[in-house]
Design a protein that fits this description.
The complex is a heterodimer of chains A (180) and B (242).
Chain A: H1 3-14, H2 18-40, H3 43-66, H4 71-90, H5 111-114, H6 124-128, H7 133-145, H8 149-156, H9 160-179
Helix pairs in contact in A: 1-2, 1-3, 2-3, 2-4, 3-4, 7-9, 8-9
Chain B: H1 16-28, H2 33-45, H3 47-60, H4 74-95, H5 97-108, H6 112-121, E1 128-129, E2 135-140, E3 146-153, E4 158-165, E5 171-178, E6 185-190, H7 202-205, E7 213-220, E8 233-238
Classes of the chains: A mainly alpha (180), B alpha+beta (242).
GO molecular function (chain B): sigma factor antagonist activity
Pfam family, one (chain B): RskA_C
Protein name (chain B): Anti-sigma-K factor RskA
């Protein structure tokens, strides 16, 4: 389905069109279910989460109509956020977040000038290729599987602070690369 | 007189790259629930930070390709429909007008708690006699582009409730028929100063029946210039036989 068609469906959901909601569910639920399942790792829980996700879709459709962006991204974000909230609530993370990051000498463009929603920079795939391979894999696994720093550290058998520094530096490098 | 150096740090003492990292970590999902909630609260009040988050979401969207589609069981959609529609309908039947009021308040009030307070504000009631001896009250909430005009005819005991756009905003309310597929069709614009009745064009009458979806949007004065809804939809629902 074209993005414009899917955006049209969401806009009709926003005005309470139940048929559009049924169609949207039919087209998008396999993807959103896959997201819930991958992050929650339990079919029953993923199906419960999927219910909540589509109830949010119904309720938030108006905010999509007003905002912009790709409909697939909007939907996937609702699903990921919900699934991640569930696992974080179930297994609290002890993150004494050091709010002031110690990543001196990284230079960043001014976000005010450079935030553009369009995919006008380099694609993230190209920029991921510029990262150390282990770091790139960590970034991707954190995103796709919804892992915490501690889980990544256990998995990779490196200290937690090391993983945290890898990911934070990777984020800055990705941003710098995509704006190049 | 003191001059701030141009390259001073943001007021929170952080640096732009810290916000960039925090936004990225939020989108990756590595943060704790508490940190996630803090970030979501900040996104609601800090637009430039919200844009950083949105940009990471857009950038990382290609990772969503790693999720291989899976079919959920059919019971899931049935449960969703039951929760969204069956329970709502029961409320609708019981509550009628109040359900409609819920739509209006949903327009400008983010939380139901605030909305409940808002109902108390429906106090700007102006009673005035009109030439037809009808008694008219306009019920509105502060900052709400929509009001309900209640007109009561003491002679026959009839009371009508008509949605009207706030006159100071120079907007009109337009009623739409939303088909199962295709574009919404205008059923008319609520004219101020009338009794709220809309004459439905003959060729559209057969389309308003059980299950038809009706919606009201806020449009420029006089109605949508494009023939399609352009403003926010403030209310919608399915028609049913009573």
């Amino acid at each position: 389905m074209q993005n414009s068609e899917m955006a049209g469906l969401i806009n009709r959901v926003a005005i309470g069109d139940r048929q559009a909601f049924t169609d949207l569910y039919r087209v998008t639920s396999p993807k959103l279910f896959a997201i819930c399942l991958r992050i929650l790792k339990d079919r029953g829980e993923a199906e419960e989460a999927l219910q909540e996700v589509y109830i949010k879709v119904w309720q938030k459709a108006k905010s999509f109509a007003i905002g912009s962006g790709m409909p697939t991204t909007w939907l996937a974000t609702i699903a990921r956020n919900h699934a991640i909230d569930i696992i974080r609530a179930r297994k609290p993370v002890n993150d004494d977040i050091d709010e002031v990051f110690d990543l001196a000498d990284e230079t960043m463009p001014n976000p005010e000038q450079s935030v553009a929603m369009a995919d006008d920079g380099r694609r993230i795939d190209a920029c991921m290729g510029e990262l150390d391979q282990v770091h790139a894999q960590s970034v991707r696994r954190a995103y796709v599987e919804g892992l915490t720093y501690a889980e990544l550290a256990d998995d990779l058998r490196v200290p937690l602070n090391t993983v945290r520094t890898w990911l934070r530096r990777s984020l800055l490098k990705l941003r710098e690369c995509m704006q190049r | 007189m003191t001059t701030e150096p141009l390259d001073r740090n943001p007021p929170d003492g952080g640096r732009p790259e810290n916000d960039e990292i925090l936004a990225g970590e939020y989108v990756l999902g590595v943060l704790s629930l508490e940190a996630r909630h803090r970030i979501e609260a900040r996104m609601a009040s800090d637009q430039s930070f919200a844009r950083l988050v949105a940009r990471w979401q857009s950038n990382m969207a290609s990772f969503n390709g790693d999720y291989q589609e899976q079919q959920p069981s059919t019971a899931v959609f049935q449960a969703i429909e039951r929760r969204l529609f069956t329970e709502n309908r029961r409320v609708e039947v019981k509550q009628g007008l109040w359900d409609a009021v819920g739509f209006w308040r949903g327009l400008s009030f983010a939380t139901s708690a605030i909305a409940a307070v808002a109902l108390l504000y429906i106090a700007t009631v102006q009673l005035r006699p009109t030439t037809t001896n009808n008694i008219v009250a306009e019920l509105s909430a502060p900052n709400d582009p929509v009001a309900l005009r209640v007109s009561f005819n003491p002679a026959d005991g009839r009371l009508r409730i008509i949605p009207i756009a706030d006159q100071s905003t120079e907007k009109s309310l337009q009623l739409w028929l939303v088909p199962q597929s295709g574009n919404p069709t205008s059923l008319g614009v609520f004219e101020p100063g009338t009794d709220g009745e809309l004459l439905i064009p003959a060729k559209l009458r057969s389309r308003i029946g059980q299950g038809a979806t009706l919606a009201v949007s806020v449009e420029p004065l006089g109605g949508s210039p494009t023939g399609l809804p352009t403003g926010p939809v403030i209310a919608s629902g399915s028609a049913r036989n009573l």
